[in-house]
Every structure is written in structure tokens, then in C-alpha cells.
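Input (Ran guanine nucleotide release factor isoform X3):
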Amino acid sequence: MEPTQDYPLFGGAFSATLPPGAIDVSDLRPVPDNQEVFCHRVTDQSLIVELLELQAHVQGEEAARYHFEDVAGVQEARAVQVEAVQPLPLENLALRGCCQEAWILSGKQQVAKENQQP
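Output:
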């Protein structure tokens, strides 16, 4: 079994530990500058890390949900499931001087791949 690997994101601003077999999609096709996209060759699952613009009308946990649901709408997701929304301790963030709070949302969206119908 391949070991997990730390992979730098957004030019090394931070990193993520990826599972064995993760493929950087930017090696296969163009990916927007505000995204890091990985796929897995066996499971056909994707992991997308996306930097999003502040939406002042929502805060905290609701902001995480807002962005997740917004992406689902843009992608015409057939199914959307939020599994967990948790605050990140600011002392664990490299950008702690820039943030008053940080949240992580884990969830699933069922969307069509690039050349498939929704």
C-alpha cells in the first residue's frame, strides 16, 4: 500500500495529506487558480479545495454551508449531503493573523463529470 503524501496547495501557502493514489487533476486539464483538484484512479472520487470570497451576509457555520450549497447549485448536483461542520482552532492556522474564525465542512455532492449529463 502506498503511503499518504503531503501535497503543497496554492503555491505552498498550506498543504494537505492526500490518500494513496491521489492524482493532481491540473496535470490532466486546466484547473481554476482558486482550486486544487485531486481524483482517485480506483474510486472515481474527487477532492476539491477551493478558496472562496467572503460573503458578509453569512457567518460562521452558516457561511460554510452557504458556500457548499452554492457550489452544489452551480454544479447542478443531484444529491448534496453535509456530513460535518466544525470550527478550526485559530492557533492551528498559518493565516491566524488574517482570520477571526475558520470552518471546515465535510460533505458529498453527486455531480456529473466534465463530459456527462447532470
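The helical segments are 60-74.
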